[in-house]
């Protein structure tokens, strides 16, 4: 039975991933903030270095140092209390888990990790924000300070997803030689509490509601989880370092000439 860690397991896409992986025969170790939530085996705040380390330590203990899968879903959106917090969870809360659990994954059976990115990573200008370089350099204090000074949560969100996708692409090249896979799933709008909060936000709600994919609807968490389950399975054994858009055609609409 493969042992797979899922972060952000209590809600939305993470909860759907837990359901589909459980059904596929995985032993799932869920990580989220609230002890009372469902699918939560390890309570940790992934926005802080101490919380991330406690999560890594608790996973190593529970899996006895041998892990087969990791799916990083935990994330916050544009309604987060601060722009810096968006980077703390969406970039540093992901990379600390991927790095911290890499040796346990190296001991696993056909190990595979996956990061939930976003179609927002392709937003024009996200790639050229100076905070991206600070994230990729691992300079959390600097990156958070830049995001807070800029005070534009939508830019921080897009930049955090761009940076974490670049991190994954770089890591994939190194991991391949060890037989460890790493992919990114980039969802478009998906009906979850995070998306609902964005739609209700007075600053961004109208823009979020107007940004409709060619398929004419938002996705369901199960539709993202199905791709995650496939990528984590042996059927996807040759898929590595890829960014899979599951977005109802949003990326094709916005960037028809880039692929
Ligand atoms: P959600 O709010 O339903 O779930 C996110 C989960 O992450 C929650 O359970 C939350 O408690 C957890 N989390 C947040 N901060 C945390 C922290 N500091 N420590 C531990 N856990 C924390 O949202 P969702 O839409 O399911 O989001 C899942 C992922 O999908 C996120 O990375 C998000 O950026 C990404 N995404 C979502 C959409 C969308 O439209 N819903 C689109 C693209 C990408």
TrEMBL record:
Gene3D superfamilies per UniProt: NAD(P)-binding Rossmann-like Domain (3.40.50.720)
SUPFAM superfamilies: NAD(P)-binding Rossmann-fold domains
Coiled-coil intervals, chain numbering: none
Domain of life: Bacteria
Pfam families in alphabetical order: adh_short, adh_short_C2
Protein name from the UniProt record: SDR family oxidoreductase
The species this protein was found in: Aromatoleum anaerobium
Taxon lineage: Bacteria, Pseudomonadati, Pseudomonadota, Betaproteobacteria, Rhodocyclales
């Amino acid at each position: 039975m493969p042992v797979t860690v899922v972060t952000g397991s209590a809600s939305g896409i993470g909860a759907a991933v837990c359901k589909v992986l459980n059904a596929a025969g995985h032993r799932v170790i869920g990580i989220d903030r609230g002890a009372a939530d469902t699918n939560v085996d390890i309570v940790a705040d992934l926005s802080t270095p101490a919380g991330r380390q406690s999560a890594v330590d608790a996973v190593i203990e529970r899996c006895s140092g041998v892990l087969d899968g990791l799916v990083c879903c935990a994330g916050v959106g544009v309604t987060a209390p601060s722009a810096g917090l968006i980077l703390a969870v969406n970039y540093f809360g992901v990379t600390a888990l991927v790095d911290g659990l890499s040796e346990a994954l190296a001991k696993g059976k056909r190990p595979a990790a996956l990061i939930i990115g976003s179609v927002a990573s392709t937003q024009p200008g996200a790639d050229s924000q100076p905070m991206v370089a600070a994230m990729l350099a691992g300079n959390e204090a600097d990156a958070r300070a830049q995001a807070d000074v800029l005070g534009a949560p939508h830019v921080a969100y897009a930049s955090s997803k761009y940076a974490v996708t670049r991190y994954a692409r770089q890591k994939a090249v190194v991991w391949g030689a060890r037989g460890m896979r790493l992919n990114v799933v980039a969802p478009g709008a998906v009906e979850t509490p995070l998306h609902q909060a964005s739609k209700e936000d007075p600053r961004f709600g109208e823009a979020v509601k107007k940004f409709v994919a060619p398929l004419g609807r938002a996705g369901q968490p199960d539709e993202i989880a199905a791709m995650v389950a496939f990528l984590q399975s042996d059927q996807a054994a040759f898929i590595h370092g890829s960014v899979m858009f599951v977005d109802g055609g949003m990326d094709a609409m916005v960037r028809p000439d880039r692929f």
